């Protein structure tokens, strides 16, 4: 039977077992199991979920070398850290050749051991996620479909994101969600929380427009008397998110001073309330989102590299609506029924011509913009089927263009989910050039064969 994930420590000296397990426990590495009889190791590993093994090299009965050999064959996914008193180069080379993850000589430097175990657990976790992701992608099933029930989609790309979210569900590392405004980042952040099954709440904080004081006070709280007007103690949102998820929206807008505080929270999982010198711990998982281009922000020095790399332990980009037009019909249908029910009237029919016309729109505001358009159309509707005229600014598609064309396995068709319009290809090329050049407009303009001012103008138009 599989039990909880943990580290297995093997040494024939009970004193070392006690000493090392205490060191690991005090270094935030819980779940350490110990074995002093080397004959039991392989059976234990077969029956339990072991994430990493710390193995003594010289032991009576079965030696470390023999165990390492069996483990690398039977469980190549488990990193093995070898500890030995024989600090010679030859043993180290043998261990590493046999597939050891790391090699430490006794007496072991505690910092080096803790760092090595943390790294081994991280590698093990990433390996587990990769295997899960592969299984999911091959099986195309969701383990927890309820968590995604409110996210309407028929897009393969979105389905891939659902599977990625399930694969990283058990991880406590931060998640960074990027994508344009209104694509559904917050909905997906909630799904990350729901799928992870953590007992605590989902707490949301929008970082846009907060100066360092407001951010620190809202997130960390303050001590009574910390500043004029602080009449009583205030617990911050990080405290409210205990055991759950803290969602930091618009993280790309965070000012530099607050970025340093957030970095400390992510690195040490520790923080201070304003005006207090009492160090507090947090176990909340951080999920952050932004519609900004981090490559450009980092290049401009407005977003710290170290914070970015901490935040994106897991990362996914939510595609804009125009890259998943195949879900237009399902979304419109869902919104029409939802809005009509709220307004206590029957849901109007949505002819194919309306869907075809909507598919031609650029939707800079993505699903939120589509919702608003449908809301307007349903509100004004008196019971007749909706028509393109109910959607101000949307042009009807000429009937001939709406005729289905067999696109076969045309590459453009697979990329866009339909044959793209000239405008869509143009936007796609600009987005790709910006991505390839990490937001450098001069280089991107060169790639696109445009002048820099023309590219700049187009980018501004897209943002409007
Ligand atoms: N696939 C979807 N199914 C149903 N509703 C959706 C979907 N995607 C987005 N929405 C709705 O669209 C609106 C915008 O979604 P959300 O707030 O998650 O976007 P966002 O990417 O976080 O936007 P912003 O960057 O502006 O904060 C919400 O009302 C959400 O419920």
Structure description:
There is one protein chain. With 464 residues, the chain is α/β, with parallel strands linked by helices. It folds into 4 domains: 6-124, Rossmann fold; 140-319, Rossmann fold; 323-402, Orthogonal Bundle (Helicase, Ruva Protein, domain 3); 421-463, Arc Repressor Mutant, subunit A (Orthogonal Bundle), CATH 1.10.10. It is 46% helix and 12% strand. The strands form 4 sheets. Strands 2-1-3-4-5 form a 5-stranded parallel beta sheet, sandwiched between helices. Strands 7-10-13-6-14 form a 5-stranded parallel beta sheet. The longest helix has 30 residues, at 110-139. The N and C termini lie far apart (57 Å).
Keywords, separated by commas or semicolons:
Sig_transdc_resp-reg_receiver; five-stranded parallel β-sheet; 464 residues; single chain; Sigma-54-dependent Fis family transcriptional regulator; nucleotide-binding; 14 strands; Helicase, Ruva Protein, domain 3; alpha/beta; 20 helices; transcription regulation; Rossmann fold; globular; 4 domains; binds adenosine-5'-triphosphate
Task: Let me know the largest β-sheet.
Answer: 5 strands, parallel
Distance between the termini: 57 Å
**Strands side by side in the biggest sheet:** 2-1-3-4-5
Q: What small ligands are held by the chains?
A: adenosine-5'-triphosphate
Look at the structure and give the mean pLDDT. Answer: 88
What is the percent of helical residues?
A: 40-55%
Q: Given this structure, which CATH class of the largest domain is correct?
A: Alpha Beta
Q: Assess the beta-strand content as a share of residues.
A: 5-15%
Radius of gyration: 27 Å
**CATH topology type of the largest domain:** Rossmann fold
What is the approximate shape? globular
CATH superfamily of the largest domain: P-loop containing nucleotide triphosphate hydrolases
Low-confidence regions: none
Number of helices: 20
Q: Which structural class fits the helix and strand makeup? A: alpha/beta
Label the CATH architecture of the largest domain.
3-Layer(aba) Sandwich
